[in-house]
Amino acid sequence: MSLARDMDLLRQVPLLSEFPEEQLRLLAFSAENVNYRDGEVLFIAGERADGGLVVATGAISLEGEGEGGSGEVLDTFGPGSLIGETALLVETRRPARAVASGATEVIRIRRALFKRMLQEFPDIARRLFEARAEAFRVTAGALSRVGAVLEQIERENTEFRADRRRADQERDEDQQ
Length: 176
Known about the structure:
By secondary structure, this protein is an alpha+beta fold. It has five helices and eight strands. The longest helix is centred in the C-terminal third of the chain and has 54 residues, at 122-175. The termini are far apart.
């Protein structure tokens, strides 16, 4: 891919969309373009992640363990998708196996490169921090709502079990 095409693609990634033109050019220039054949495995579940991958062409399927060891497709990512966002920032392991669906090209951004960019351009780091903090707030809010629903289900479940116990006791008493 050309530098201009890589920059256009990286600009589509929400995490990178706020990068100024100069820094986006540097990132596109320093990243690595890698091609995969249909069915080729990019990484396996549990493997140490050294950065993120932006899908340039083709698609990548993330697969979990299915019955009999076959891969169950969890999600599929097309051009402009970033796989491994967390791995750009911290050490982590791959949560699933990634397989190329058709001829696929990715832009590999290693964590060391991304961290160096954040160190050299603190304004990018600040924007990224603010965006991640907002995403965290949204996630925390959603989890809070899920927690409230789970508590309600637990209360209803407890009431149901108590009613069931009483009904069973009454039935047992009637049978005696």
